[in-house]
Amino acid sequence: MTTSSPTTLVPTDPFALVGVRLDGKYDVHSVVAEGGFGVVYRGTHRTLQKPVAIKVLKTPPSLPDASRKAFIDKFVFEARTIARLEHPGIVRILDFGGGLLPAGGAAPWIVLEWIDGHTLDDALAARRHHGGQSPADALALLRPVFDALAVAHDEGVAHRDLKPANIMLARTRQGIEPKLLDFGIAKSMSDDESAPSGATATRTELRAYTPAYAASEQIGSTRTGPWTDVHALALLLTEVLTDQAPIRGDDSTALTVDALSPLRPTPAKFGLDVGPWEPILARALALRPAERFQHAREFLQALDATSPVSATWRPSARWSSHATGPDPSAVTTPRASAPLAPVAVASHPTSPAPSSSHAWITLVALALVSLASVIFLLQSRSTHAPSQATAPAPALPAPPPTYAAAPPPALPTPVLPTPVALADASTPPTPQRTIPARPTRPTTRPAAPLRPALREHVPVE
After folding, report:
1. The CATH number of the domain where 33 resides is what?
2. Residue 51: which of 116, 127, 138 has the closest Cα?
3. Could you give the 3-state DSSP secondary structure of residue 212?
4. C-alpha 259 chain-centroid distance
């Protein structure tokens, strides 16, 4: 199995292009990187004096002539396809050439826009052990990659070697913009789309993928496509969220075993609760390609559907950029779901139950001071009781029936002249004292701690 990681080889100049002028237009200055299937040079457009990247395809010498021609033809076809995409998240192809090289031999080459920046792989390595990103920040970082792949998938093109090393974080006037490298090149080194599911590739030596980001169909040499990119996208998102490599192993065999494990590398596997994103990522990381999202846009839409939840999620100290080390106790389910509770409480901010109990206590006190004041208060109270009885009904369904039944006996009390009548008038408040609104206070008191939690999360927005 051959991988396309640029770190597998020490950069050399196998085509002897450094110091020469390619195709009469490009001055080649240095070797930038070398992989299993190509060498990338830095150059300058002679007329425009603009920096460019030149990638020369390395054709495996073991290929017979017929296969070599088919390999190069497919490379040309893919280059044309990617040039047609014209997406800001995909490194642009500026030129294409081939034929004899100045030092001898023949090979196809493409000229790409030069990207000033560093790879996502470099960025993740620099931040390792400093904490992952929040869901909102992680998706904001990778959204251009999702968008670029969605456009490619619309055209029937898949990357098939998606990994942090193939994502450049370009420094532009607008800020940092992710751009995909080697887009489409991996497809030209893979099986035909028409290959039946489960078929063994006839050119397995040309398959280009990285074991740490490979899907089961790549490992098993079966049909690949947009669903393969979906799997790699989910691995990338998990890595940005957790600050940990999703697939681990000391060699290709160990990586393959971990990649095919039934325990999928979702954030939950690493102790991070991302709420509704967990089942979405589990689907994207399914071992069976048919069970995954079949398109990058479909995957992104599922994540966006939970964006209000992900926007209120806040990482614990473990995920802060200033954290010094992991804090397992801080990574709990309530941390991810806590912001949902204040939202629900805030939608029902008022409850008149406490003021209602206070009114009854005042009524009893006035009855002890003056029976006449009690009668007067009950008369004035009867005009307000219905509104107070209906207000707390949504939150406290039990008290209203007794509360509403109390005022009717109090209505005739003003026309009764005898002390017996006063005693009858005082009878209704007595049972109401046994159903005070005090039980309603515990209902409101638990809501109080939620407000600080809301303040804890909202200012970080």
Report:
1. 3.30.200.20
2. 116
3. helix
4. 21
Domain that holds residue 178: 117-337
How many whole angstroms separate alpha carbon 438 and alpha carbon 23?
88
The reply to whether 136 and 107 lie within a common domain is no
Name the helix (H) or strand (E) containing 421: helix 419-426
Q: Clarify whether residues 121 and 164 are in a common domain.
A: yes
- How far is it, in rounded angstroms, from Cα 26 to Cα 49? 9
Q: For residue 167, list its beta bridge partners.
A: 180
The one-letter amino acid code at 449 reads: P
State whether 199 and 226 are in the same domain: yes
Q: Which of 398, 378, 379, 380 is nearest to 389 (CA)?
A: 398
Strand partners, 454: none
The whole-angstrom separation of Cα 120 and Cα 42 is 20
Q: What does the pLDDT profile of the chain (461 residues) look like in tens digits?
A: 434 444 445 678 889 999 999 999 999 999 998 877 789 999 999 999 999 999 998 887 777 888 888 888 877 887 887 788 889 999 999 999 887 787 777 889 999 999 999 999 999 999 888 889 999 999 999 999 999 999 999 988 899 999 999 999 999 888 999 999 886 554 544 444 433 333 323 234 456 689 999 999 999 989 999 999 999 999 999 999 999 999 999 999 999 999 999 999 999 999 999 999 999 999 999 999 999 999 999 999 999 998 655 444 444 333 333 333 333 333 333 333 333 223 333 333 334 444 444 444 444 444 444 444 444 444 544 444 443 433 343 333 334 443 344 444 444 444 444 444 444 444 444 444 444 444 444 444 444 443 333 333 333 33
If asked whether residues 399 and 288 sit together in one domain, one would say no
| pTM more than 0.90 | no
How much helix, strand and coil, in percent to the nearest 5, is found in the chain? 50, 10, 40
Q: Answer whether residue 314 is part of any domain.
A: yes
Radius of gyration of the chain (CA): 35
The tokens for 315 are 């990482």
